[in-house]
Write a structure and sequence with these properties.
231 residues, mainly alpha, 67% helix, 0% strand
Length: 231
């Protein structure tokens, strides 16, 4: 039980850091040296105000200086990060290298979800960093290439049929990186899940404008990953 608690803490800390990266990197800010501050009064936060989950709860979701409300997104991201890091050792029998790969994979999915929600953008730097990190684990280069080419082809077809861009370049490259981790069957399962969930969302919300697709890609990839590893 202690190891799972520690894993949850590590995951929530990692998620808090990735949230900073997701907000700063697309804006070309120095995320590695950026000091966290209240978005309302811009007061630099102390370490006591930066403890994931706990600080938010103790401060009742408000800045200790100006008492403005802190977005619940911060709390949600930290909880999700903790759960994502804790689930693999609980439900899957993984080697140490596979567990590291799983944590990297989930971190990638969380980061691109946030950047796409914040800015409708999947930065190349994030894909390059995680893509390079995956090569220190067991990767499927062919599946990664298939994922990229499949969506690149779908993008060209969509552009030909609808005379406009239907799939973002970031989404195409993201599937290439996801393919480094997933098997061939899991990759296409992820595509099926992502597309189905996105279609249901569009039909239910009746939105006509472009929507961030990375959250659906992440959810589909996450589901496919667990299905393939449990199977």
């Amino acid at each position: 039980m202690e190891i799972f608690s520690l894993t949850f803490i590590v995951g929530s800390v990692a998620a808090s850091f990735l949230n900073v990266v997701a907000q700063a990197l697309p804006q070309h800010q120095n995320w590695w040296s950026r000091r966290s501050a209240c978005p309302h009064c811009h007061k630099t936060l102390t370490w006591k105000e930066l403890v994931p989950i706990l600080s938010f709860c103790l401060q009742l979701g408000k800045c200790t200086f100006c008492r403005s409300k802190i977005s619940r997104v911060y709390l949600a991201v930290e909880i999700i990060g903790g759960l994502l890091f804790t689930l693999p050792p609980i439900f899957l029998s993984l080697s140490h290298i596979d567990l590291i790969q799983a944590w990297l994979f989930f971190s990638l999915l969380l980061t691109v979800t946030l950047t796409d929600l914040y800015y409708q953008l999947i930065p190349n730097k994030i894909l390059m960093i995680f893509g390079a990190a995956f090569f220190f684990t067991d990767v499927n280069i062919l599946t990664g290439l298939i994922g990229f080419l499949f969506f690149y082809g779908a993008s060209l077809m969509g552009k030909f049929l609808f005379k406009k861009e239907t799939i973002g370049g970031g989404d195409i490259k993201l599937y290439g990186v996801i393919g480094l981790v997933l098997s061939y069957h899991a990759l296409f399962t992820a595509i099926l899940f992502s597309s189905s969930i996105a279609l249901i969302y569009v039909l239910m919300t009746k939105k006509n404008k472009p929507i961030p697709f990375a959250p659906f890609i992440a959810l589909g990839a996450l589901m496919a990953y667990f299905m393939s590893m449990r199977g």
